[in-house]
Write a structure and sequence with these properties.
Layout lengths: L1 H34 L4 H12 L3 H29 L1 H27 L19 H10 L3 H13 L2 H16 L5 H22 L10 H23 L3
């Protein structure tokens, strides 16, 4: 009898492990499918990674924001948000205005670039002192606050974040029952992996983006995507 109970316990334990792994990988898969796309947030992370300006901070802000939104959705707030559609409308118009403004700024950079160029390698060469490169880097380095605020705006003023991350992920998580937080953990892992890969993997493209012309092209692409996204937000669906 004891042996039979032990076998039954082992069977249930293996089934539970399979259920947990299924929920974890389901969260990773759905999280990646929602986040891996050409959007305002991803382009901003890519740009900061290429310029090597606060890439770690930007990746942390994006990943932490996603984790918070996922937790909110899994906790059931997504159902409340679906019952109050005017909140989504407010966010939609605010996000469209911000995306349009950011797109116009990128278009201006593409049309009339400033004098700053990308420093692919800021390390001093042999025979040179560290003082001059360090002074140049400090003189041209932007402030942290505007970068963080822009990152937060691109994240929290995007209505698709609430529809996809909060409502959709939250709704799917409920189908996993007691393993819904395992599903949420998988989605959070996908978010962290994606943003850090985008922020730090993009620097390997810097050799091809070390000229002002390349940055004008990149800013032009960013401008087009941002403006198209802004128009798409306000058009009737």
């Amino acid at each position: 009898m004891a042996r039979k109970n032990n076998e039954l316990y082992l069977i249930r334990r293996r089934a539970y492990r399979r259920s947990v792994l299924t929920s974890l990988f389901a969260g990773i898969g759905l999280g990646l499918s929602l986040i891996v796309a050409i959007g305002a947030q991803n382009l901003f992370v890519l740009r900061q990674g290429l310029r090597r300006e606060f890439a770690l901070t930007v990746a942390l802000v994006c990943a932490a924001s996603d984790a918070l939104l996922i937790a909110v959705g899994v906790s059931g707030i997504g159902l409340v948000l679906a019952a109050v559609p005017w909140v989504v409308d407010v966010v939609r118009w605010a996000g469209a205005a911000f995306l349009l403004g950011y797109g116009l700024l990128a278009a201006r950079r593409a049309w009339r670039p400033g004098g700053a160029t990308l420093r692919v390698d800021v390390a001093p060469t042999r025979g040179m002192s560290d003082a001059a490169p360090a002074a140049t880097a400090l003189a041209t380095r932007p402030r942290l606050a505007p970068v963080v605020l822009t990152c937060l705006a691109l994240t929290w003023l995007n209505p698709h974040v609430y529809l996809d991350t909060v409502f959709l992920l939250g709704s799917v998580a409920t189908t996993h029952g007691d393993a819904r937080w395992v599903f949420a953990a998988g989605a959070m892992m996908a978010s962290v992996a994606w943003f850090f890969t985008l922020a730090f993997g993009s620097r390997y493209l810097s050799r091809w983006l070390a000229t002002p012309r390349a940055w004008r092209i990149l800013d032009g692409v960013i401008a087009v995507v941002m403006i198209v996204l802004a128009v798409g937000l306000v058009l009737p669906h």
